[in-house]
Amino acid sequence: MLDGIDRALIHALHIDGRASFTQLAGVLAVSPQTVSRRYERLRDDAALRVVGLPDPQLTGQEQWLLRLTAGPETALDLAHALVRRPDTSWVYLTGGGTEIVAVLETPLGMAHGHSLLLRELPPSVGLTAVSAHHLLHTYLGWRTPWRMSANALTARQQRMLGAAAFAGYDGMPPPARRRPVHLSPADHALMEALRRDGRAGLGELASGTGWSPATVSRRLDQLRACGAIFFDIEIDPALLGGSVRVLVWMAVAPAHLDEVATTLAGHDELAFVAHTTGPTNLVAHALCRDTTALYHYLTHGLGSVKAIRTLETAPVLRTLKAVGTLR
Questions:
Q1: For 258, what's the count of Cα atoms within 13 Å in the CB-facing half-sphere?
Q2: Rounded distance, CA 4 to CA 214, Å?
Q3: What is the CA radius of gyration of the chain?
């Protein structure tokens, strides 16, 4: 079970995943040794992990949400084939265990990037159906954490971790000042190391880039300041009240899409809301305490949003890969 200090530490790491134990201790009003012990215990018992992630739009990438179906005897093999790819994240086994949902990142402008992925899959996976949905706009998720994993700190404690972060867990400059960022091979190596461990020391990060620790520190500050990289955490959602996980596919009239998506982004039960291409143009990830809570949310939470024309649910049976690189 998580206590108040655990939850406060998780919330703090959402705001600044690279804050030192001393900084975190000052915010949580405990000793650095306590923070260190709690962090290590959460890593061991709750699968806590801090990961550094590139912003796709600023680093020349676009994202696709793939739904793939295979026979019951090969679905897991297909899922593991996707897990091993460096350009995938959030690989889920859903439905009755024959559908896999994954996020794929491709270079910007590669309109048929998902087709490239399918050509590279081994023929033995027995793929029977696929649909690809271009992620056009994310309303909740990625930079903005699930509300139930980031609700433990006071406004003052959040400000202590940085005014920019407090404004929305997002250090990005205003939209008018956002510019694509050219990444060197060393930048890519740095980002890959941070995707493995967002709290890796400067010496460890330097070893993969050819830079000095001081250069790594400066470059990391630059990438964070312009929004090209941000930090997220992975953790077992069941410990935070998300034992039942469901993907929700919705169809909404375009005239109401922004209003509906903005409304859903304020629901405590949702960890992800995004606008996609395809016959279902809105997708969400719901995390509920149990099936009773899920039923109540589907009938009273989503059910009260009249502009949702159709709704399909797919229970998440297993999360095979999250946002970080496989360890």
A1: 1
A2: 36
A3: 20
Closest CA to 154 of 6, 35, 11, 3: 11
Q: What is the mean pLDDT of residues 300-322?
A: 96
- Distance (Å, whole) CA 259 – CA 249: 17
Neighbours of 102 (CB within 10 A): 24
C-alpha pair distances (Å), 160 with each of 24, 27, 117, 165: 9, 7, 44, 10
**In this structure, how many other beta carbons lie within 10 angstroms of the beta carbon of residue 126?**
16
Higher-confidence position of 165 and 79: 79
133 versus 123: the higher-pLDDT residue is 133
Residue 151: phi and psi, rounded to 5, are: -135, 25
In this structure, which amino acid lies at residue 309? Answer: R
56, 55, 50: which is closest to 13 by C-alpha? 50
Asked whether 150 and 10 are in contact (CB, 8 A), the reply is: yes
Cβ neighbours around 279 below 10 Å, total: 10
What count of other Cβ atoms lies within 10 Å of the Cβ of residue 310? 10
pLDDT, tens only, 172-218: 444 445 678 999 999 999 999 999 999 999 999 999 899 999 999 99
What tens digit of pLDDT does each residue of 256-282 get? 999 999 999 999 999 999 999 999 999
% pLDDT > 90, the chain: 75
All domains of the chain, ordered by start, with CATH? 61-136 (3.30.70.920), 140-144+241-317 (3.30.70.920), 182-225 (1.10.10)
Cα separation, 11 vs 17, whole angstroms: 10
What pLDDT does residue 180 have?
85
- Expressed in angstroms, the distance from the first to the final Cα of the chain is 25
Query: Nearest Cα to 53, choosing from 83, 92, 90, 25?
Result: 90
- Looking at residue 317, its amino acid is L
Distance CA 54, CA 109 (A): 17
Instruction: Decide: pTM greater than 0.70.
Output: yes
Token couple for 110? 């590669």
Strand runs labelled E in 142-256: 229-234, 244-252
The tokens of 256 are what? Answer: 């109401």
